[in-house]
Write a structure and sequence with these properties.
The chain is an alpha+beta fold. The protein contains twelve helices and 23 strands.
Length: about 500
Amino acid sequence: MKRMAMLFALSLFSLGAAAQFLETGPPESRQARQVAGSFTISPPPPEEAIGSERPPVYSERVNPTLAATLQRALDSLLELHGATGLSAAMALPDGSVWEGAAGINSTAPNDSLHPGMVLGIGSVSKNLTAATVLRLYEEGLLGLDDSLWQWLPLYPNIDSNITIRSLLNHTSGIASYTDNAAFWGYVNANLGQNLEPAFILENYVGQPAFAPGEGWSYSNTNYLLLGLIIEAAGGSAFHEAVRSRLLAPNELESPALFPQESPALPLAHLWLDITGDGNAEDFTAAGLPLNAIFSGAWSAGAYLSTAADMSRWIRSLMAGQVLQPSTLAEMQATVQVSPNFHYGLGLYRTNLAGKAWWGHDGYIFYQALVLYQPGLGVGLALLGNDGEFEQMGPVFLGLAAAYENYLELATATIGRDRQEVEVFPNPFSDAISISGLPAQPLEVSLINTQGLTAARERIAASDAQEVFHWALPASLPRGFYLLRLNTGGKNIALKMVKH
């Protein structure tokens, strides 16, 4: 048990770390914990305003080829990076949702992780908490610049003049209770207990990091206070306010606040390094309760959900279907924490692979990335049951790249050289023939839906103007490819399909 207690103390401290997903960003953003000094609050860039997303290109049902492409990508990414289990979903511009899963749930035979399971979403819960506060604001039940003393009693080390807005964007300076070792000592000794937020606030909040408004510091305490404000302003339990104002209106059935609510779907097994051998083991099978951990997170991080509902949620929110435009603009007004990370009201913006993504990430043993890309108009959710897995970012980006490559394949044409160059047969099996090539050296390649070069061949000038027969590797998988011809000054592209 001593070994287990040490494991908890080391693993759970990361609940208080900001933006775990920023492992994929530049070094200065990977451990953004506290920024001291003056700051400005900026609106979102104009190109990321509501309605700027790409027009839909799919029917109401997810294109079967796209679904197969994304599932193959998820399978290969899990195998490549070695996760135990991953659940993913993508909400598309036409309202349809792809969902898939890969890996295992438990050590029982044939017990695979599947999309009909819920996993912990950790601090993605803050996005729900913030949106509920903003719905109460729209109803006229509270003001974003209301002070704590208007809603809550006094708590040690918490300035009652701090505003709701400062709680939402982490400029309050309030210390995070999850940075207090004594809190984790209590959790470890009382794993089956349901902790009350007032108990945590009265006993485990340390000295402020800075005066209100004079810096930025990610604090789970901010969101415990917001949960209590929601109850005071809305007149109901926190989880009931979230359900009535967000989940029910948006037909999201799976999210549940644990342990206050029992999930309607099976909870995926959690995997952690229990023995200290460096490998993740089935923590759920060990029979240890999660009550203290999740109740201790409460409105800061205790929601469970399917990936499908989280992808729907973030797309609905960012497409303007949850909040009024002016309220969403308030949510998107951000504090710049680092060059690559801007935090708003329970929502952040980060640049990944040259694109801006909006949303939140989370870690409470289970891992979650739930982000929206305005240019693509998609919400992408990636959930994991492996608390030791360190490659969530690369898997997320791999799924996004698979979707973008599918779009390119689905819309590619041979261009203005269509009458001059012929490629046949299409669909192909083991070879492709190309005729009408220019009399100059060129390169031909096949790009798969993950953006990787599956085959490449250089053609000498002496072969040009004749039919070029390209024998392809027998191991080339079936599916969609983009054939590219680079003639030295002109690129030609054509969508190809292998039987």
